[in-house]
Amino acid sequence: MKLVSPGEAAANTNDMSDKAGEDLVRIGEMAKKYGVTLRTLRFYEDKGLLNPQRDGSTRLYTRRDKARLKLILLGRKVGFSLRDVKQMMDLYDPSGSNTKQLRLTLDKSEKQLARLQKQRALIDDAINELSNSMAAVRQMLSERSAPQASVAG
Amino acid sequence: MKLVSPGEAAANTNDMSDKAGEDLVRIGEMAKKYGVTLRTLRFYEDKGLLNPQRDGSTRLYTRRDKARLKLILLGRKVGFSLRDVKQMMDLYDPSGSNTKQLRLTLDKSEKQLARLQKQRALIDDAINELSNSMAAVRQMLSERSAPQASVAG
DNA sequence: TATAGAATTGACGTAAACGTAAGGGTGCAG
DNA sequence: CTGCACCCTTACGTTTACGTCAATTCTATA
User: Coiled coil: which residue ranges (chains A, B) (predicted)?
Assistant: First the structure.
């Protein structure tokens, strides 16, 4: 039940093999396409975030997996843990209004937003402190010869 | 050679015991004073960042240790690793101009400042993305009943 | 003297998201 | 048949800054 051979993988962008336009890709192509490593994809699967089909032992990623991976990467970008991402995705039900999922997502997002804002404040603080220290150090360097009220003991 | 007993520790702010105003404190008081745990102080010592005297096996922190701890905490605040902090402090020489130390410190600080600014940019990015996503989710929630172009598969 | 409070060393545990190496299989181009 | 190019699983390693026991000792105070 071979679907995509390595040699023709490149030319195989829209091969209709089994069903209609299922567009299955193996791990290598998937990784390249989304800028992650094979290890990462396997890791996400191990953590229950992805669930590719198999052709024997070979993973075949569907368009659904791609959508999920996009979400994972978005979640990662905004600072969610994989655990959070999983919680949110696990609530998805294709046959419902997904109100619960959306509410959970919104709730987590609000908290995450707060965390990000706090982080930004801390970083701004750090930048200010560091800038001050740097000014002081520059001072001391420019006065090297004068009495040292130096920096450490 | 008892210097500071636990009971009188509080009233003992400027006890002149051995030398003049040496102001030695034990680990408990040191920790309280700087808002760190005992474990942290011992850890810093283990890593060569602090070097308190000993009365038998009991650590006695001098004013020098306090100065160093302040620096460590400042370094930590601005995002330096303890390894970096140590490198900078290790270059301190009480009998010199400390030009090398200051230069290293400045160099590391510039790099750290760059890292902080990059981080801030990433966080700002994340905040924007997250805000957008939240708006979308709110949209979908407000339209719950309309066709779902929902969030996950 | 009994007890509570402070200190000591030693050493395993934790978190997060993978990295990396080992050992092995499949299939096709040459 | 060889050699790649891919793919697989298992499982230990990495990073940083401590947390959390555990078992023991010291000492001041009631």
Answer: 99-133
